UniProtKB/TrEMBL annotation, chains A, B:
Keywords: FAD, Flavoprotein, Oxidoreductase. This is Acyl-CoA dehydrogenase family protein. Its cofactor is FAD. Residues 280-440 form the Acyl-CoA oxidase C-alpha1 domain.
Length: 663, 663
């Protein structure tokens, strides 16, 4: 029913391309994590927490998440390896990945990035070894997105040379804090620093929250966030501080120091700028969450594609057996564009991880422009990958029918566990706003601020003329784009240059429009500064989404260019066509509205997409096998059982049992 | 920040309009179902099953789901009341709703519809009273959508005057069966009837599966479907039959009888036609699932809207306190179109329920054309409502941030419990195909068949010229549509006639295109009958979706027309504008591609939608209050606590505590 591939693809070669630079880390996880690391279906919250805590010390160290720490503390200063390890854990058990992410990424990462030598020497070795479990206590019940406005205070008293950490009211309670409800011995607590009667913005302290016996420290109240949609193995909790005394040297003081007499000093003068510089060092958290969401999506797609290749339903007049789900156009329309998008995002994520590793991994000072561009990219890709995960895992569960609703078939856990990724480590909508703000201001001034409103008129005046900054394979993409003739209609829709130009046109036009509308607003709505931004918020978010789409396509194109195996390259090129044309098809309203597509060409795109589905149909299995997920990791009953059932039924039908064959 | 409504709306009047004809049933539930019926967060599967089973006998009877049964068995022959009662239970606890739906809708409904007097007299009273709990054992592991191909057999033996019920292989195992794993004493089992060596298609038998002590009957193997994504309180199980003897009179023989000597007779000669007539009597199952999904969506929207009206984040230069979530355009863009769609679907559902009540509730013979049209409408609205629920509840959970991920805030349960609705009682994609087939063939011949493939060429030849059948307020809608001048550009996009015409144009054009493509395919692909349909499957599904959109808009328009209160009518009219224009905006690619919209007018629509959001912003609370959900039923911690927290924070900030105010 479908055309055959012209060149057979060696799955091992495809996997090599996808495994990329940290292939060794991926292989270490595939080899070391056996069945005992897989989720247990139907366990209670207490059972899940117990099990996950027990697994933590058994995880790979130098080839795992702790790889990011310096060798002297047990790692090997490999930031990229640490993010890739997070992706791998996400395919095994998402509770385990989050628990490990809290311990080594957030908690340990904060001590490493915000602390100084004395904190490192005193704690990092135990943190890496998992002997001190800890929390990252930033979010409060009252402030999740706008963390610059945290209400917890930490006030220095020169007389005692200690800080007084305090939760002034219930909205200032630390909330959703991983590792808090059960296991955490210490916490990095974020609070407003006050000394000598002056506030200096949000800083972080390393604070013991439980004693050796596991009881809360004096003045610390610990609550449980209770049952959640998923991530049962993670002990999210709530922390309140009733005038808790914190020694002066527990301030993580890389970016701000308090002298014994209470004098404050910092290499960064502006409070807000300092805070977002502190947050910036934590950029790999967002890259890890985005990568983990993508990794879980690959598991879901592997389950749905593999099931669709054995599950049959409804007979066809031209086949003896019933039709495989994957042979239906509607099923291909669900699975294949999602698979193509997953491939595209994979290359974008790989590029992001390499860039973080390069920018943050060196010994010298970090290039500020690159750092901000990186924060923006991590934010945008985190939003794109987590929403893609939520949509795609949902679709995969539906594509498996009632079986997809049973825990034993893995999909319910993947859906429930990843669900929170769209709003943690930054709410996706807020993150896209941050991306747009970076584009609008050229990453100038307080870019990191999540607050798009406070100084709207300022930003409106600052918006720059659009300059597209390419992230990947700059010269190749320039060449492809500039080779497209002026009259689009003459170019095939599968021309890569035309596709790149279409993505770029959309981003550029949307950005220009946002600039124009913000400037108009700044002059006509001077008395309503909130409305200047709010009236264009939908437009601004569209800019960010278009930007992420472009960055993703460019990364995919660069990834294909770097592929040497011709068969793999040819396959990836068709997948890239499907990705690019699916995005254009999904936004054809915009392209038609702005004269970028004629109606006739829009119809051609739909026809070409359908042809691509036919062409890629026989490659669906290869495409998911390329993800390299060990079969046991799929942990899915229907994949183990359905083929046998179909065989049993076919054999029984063929045997002509009078009870089952029509008279 | 937003304009005020011109006429104040009395919420009680709005609720009256929404409560509609079965307001009394709604009120009975609101009054009778106290806190003890609400979900318990964090319980185990066993605890949930125990609790739900215990609640079943406490539910309203004559004002509840059993109302559909005749008075002599404990009901009052009120089919509409029964569906509305299902909607109400869905707002209390979805496990309870599904458990009750299995007992009274599926199991009891099958005995009533497929059985005859002797079955009714023997069992219905106990079924209505909940003294016999039962299952609806249709789906098999191997056949869920294509239930005409079930593999379980039931073979008559004239010598013993009994049937032999048998599961020939593991693909024929009954699966996902509610009430099977724990509570069911009997089951309506669907199987292939064989008598005198001949097959007569699928029939149903009433079969005891457990004895009085709760042990499986001889030859019956009962398994547990295990943990699921949600619906923890429903004991879904698996049934296998090893040559189980079933007495002759346990055949539910309304549509097919087996005489003592094994002679088969039926008022409907064709096996397939008979089977789909049998299924047709169960149409209210789909209407109930669609209505339940919509009801749960209303709970989620009430939570998210009410939270967005108290939750603040990010400061604004022109306000003392931080900004309410609902004041952000991006938040309005998420919540308000979903709210408008929920309103539109509410009126479509109300119209469907009234139509089912009218067509099936009478004593005379059922009008076949109307019955088929009804099945199609129930299928289409079930798909639309359940997908809307999945998308909207997901969006609401994200709109509540991290709080939306905690079980105590209700949304995780709503999401997980409704998730399966998109694939049970008919997979949505398969149902839309059924809708399209009805439109293509004018509801002729085997319309009920879910199999779009087997006789594709036949169907392709049968496709009729398009005749739009209006379901609601026929003359009003004709008048509105015909009043639209030929040149669309001269009419405001808020003109109701223009909106109706746009929906109708889309459906008509898509249907014409599908007819043309099927006819072309039938002549050019004679040797590939599967491809005739498969190559246009995406197009055919688009026809169905456009049809459901049109039916929904027409029902909304009819509902507004029937509203007497002027303020309520004015508000509903604006909500209807938002619904209609959101749908057109979402499909603007199609409208532009087909010359139904100019680019300029497409941009006007986006601007008008944004204006409608501003206009409706102050009414968001009123709109959710109109759903009439008792506050305790919301069962949501953030709604109880967040307002107090915001007050505490505001008071603290205002008090100028030196620890919390910037120096």
């Amino acid at each position: 029913m479908s055309s055959q591939p012209s060149v057979p693809v060696d799955v091992a070669r495809l996997r090599e391309v996808l495994d990329g630079r940290w292939a060794e880390v991926r292989e270490a996880h595939r080899t070391e994590l056996d069945d005992s690391f897989l989720p247990v279906y139907g366990e209670t919250g207490d059972q899940a927490r117990e099990r996950i805590t027990g697994l933590l010390p058994r995880l790979p160290v130098t080839m795992g998440m702790p790889a990011a720490f310096p060798a002297e503390y047990g790692g090997r200063s490999d930031i990229g390896a640490s993010i890739v390890a997070t992706e791998m854990l996400a395919q095994v058990d998402l509770s385990l990945m989050v628990k490990a992410g809290v311990q080594w990424g957030l908690f340990g990462g904060a001590v490493l990035s915000l602390g100084t030598r004395r904190h490192h020497d005193a704690y990092l070795r135990d943190i890496v070894a998992g002997d001190i479990l800890g929390c990252f206590a930033m979010t409060e019940t009252g402030h999740g997105s706008d963390v610059q406005q945290l209400r917890t205070t930490c006030t220095y008293d020169p007389a005692t040379q200690t800080f007084d950490l305090h939760t002034p009211h219930q909205a200032a309670r630390k909330d959703y804090i991983g590792n808090a409800a059960r296991d955490g011995r210490m916490a990095v607590v974020f609070a407003q620093l006050i000394t000598n009667g002056q506030r200096h913005g949000v800083h972080a302290w390393l604070v013991p929250i439980r004693d050796a016996a596991g009881n809360p420290m004096p003045g610390v109240t610990i609550g449980d966030a209770g049952p959640k949609a998923g991530l049962l193995g993670v002990d999210n909790g709530r922390l309140s501080f009733d005038h808790v005394t914190v020694p002066r040297d527990m301030l993580l003081d890389r970016y701000g120091q308090v002298a014994a007499d209470g004098t404050y000093s910092s290499p960064i003068e502006n409070d807000s700028r300092r805070f977002f510089t502190m947050l910036g060092t934590l950029v790999r958290g967002r890259a890890s969450v985005g990568g983990a969401a993508a990794a879980a999506t690959k598991v879901a797609l592997t389950v749905a594609v593999r099931y669709g290749d054995i599950r049959r339903q409804f007979s066809s007049p031209d086949a003896e057996r019933e039709v495989l789900l994957n042979d239906y156009l509607a099923h291909q329309r669900k699975l294949l564009p999602a698979l193509a998008t997953t491939y595209a995002l994979h290359f974008a994520q790989a590029e992001l991880v390499a860039a973080i590793d390069e920018v943050q991994g060196g010994d010298g000072p970090v290039d500020e422009h690159r750092q901000r561009e990186l924060e923006s990219r991590a934010a945008g890709l985190k939003a794109a990958q987590t929403w893609h995960a939520t949509r795609t895992i949902q679709m995969c569960r539906e594509a498996c029918g009632g079986a997809g609703y049973l825990a034993e078939n893995r999909l319910p856990g993947l859906k429930a566990d990843t669900d929170v990724f769209t709003t943690f480590e930054g709410d996706n909508t807020v993150l896209l706003q941050l991306v747009a703000k970076g584009l609008l201001t050229g990453y100038r001034d307080e870019f990191g601020s999540l607050d798009g409103w406070g100084r709207a008129s300022f930003v409106a005046e600052q918006v720059r003329e659009m300059v597209l900054e390419r992230t990947a394979a700059r010269s190749l993409i320039e060449r492809l784009v500039s080779a497209v003739p002026g009259r689009d209609e003459e170019v095939a829709v599968t021309d890569r240059g035309w596709q790149l130009k279409a993505f770029e046109d959309r981003e550029r036009h949307l950005l220009d429009g946002a600039v124009r509308r913000l400037r108009n607003g700044a002059s006509t709505k001077k008395d309503r500064p909130f409305d200047i931004f709010n009236d264009v918020q939908d437009h601004v978010l569209a800019v960010a989404a278009a930007h992420v789409d472009r960055v993703t396509l460019e990364a995919f194109v660069a990834g294909i260019e770097a592929t040497s195996d011709p068969a793999v390259k040819a396959l990836l090129s068709r997948v890239c066509d499907l990705y690019a044309l699916s995005v254009i098809e999904a936004h054809k309203g915009w392209f038609l509205e702005h004269g970028r597509l004629t109606p006739a060409r829009a119809k051609v795109i739909t026809a070409v997409v359908n042809n691509l589905l036919k062409e890629l149909r026989p490659q669906m299995g290869t495409l998911v096998d390329g993800f390299g997920i060990p079969p046991t990791w799929l942990h899915c009953a229907i994949l183990r059982e359905e083929a046998d059932r179909q065989e049993a039924m076919a054999a029984h039908d063929a045997a002509g049992d009078p009870q089952t064959v029509a008279a």
